[in-house]
Amino acid sequence: MAARKSVRPDAEHLRTVKVSVPLGVRDHARLCGVAALRGMTVSAFAAEAIREALRGVTLIDRHGKGESADRGDSSCQGIESDDAAAN
């Protein structure tokens, strides 16, 4: 029996989630200012900054199929970076 090859869907087909991030008033003001200078919304700038910060990060799920992780958020399982998917 041949090994099954994992196929990663295009980024445009991945679902998105919303994240709440508590910031201090000064950091929020700076975030708004930088986003405005770049002609972006705060959310678009934050998403771009997070993607850039996570570039090259690869997560490996060491649990077998069907097993739940003792720690961590189950919504984050099976994530790999764009760089790893390109290899």
Describe the structure.
The chain has 87 residues and is mostly helical. 36% of the residues lie in helices and 0% in strands. The protein has three helices and no strands. Helix 1 packs across helix 2.
- Order of SSEs, N→C? HHH
Q: In oligomeric terms, what are we looking at? A: single chain
Class per helix and strand makeup: mainly alpha
Sheet having the most strands: none
Mean pLDDT: 77
Number of helices: 3
DSSP strand content:
under 5%
Helix content: 25-40%
Supply Rg.
17 Å
Q: pLDDT under 50 segments (min length 5)?
A: none
Shape descriptor reads elongated
- Total DSSP E strands: 0
Distance between the termini: 25 Å
Q: Features of this protein?
A:
mainly alpha; elongated
Indicate the topology.
Layout: H1 25-37, H2 42-54, H3 82-86
Short account of what is shown:
The protein is mainly α and 87 residues long.
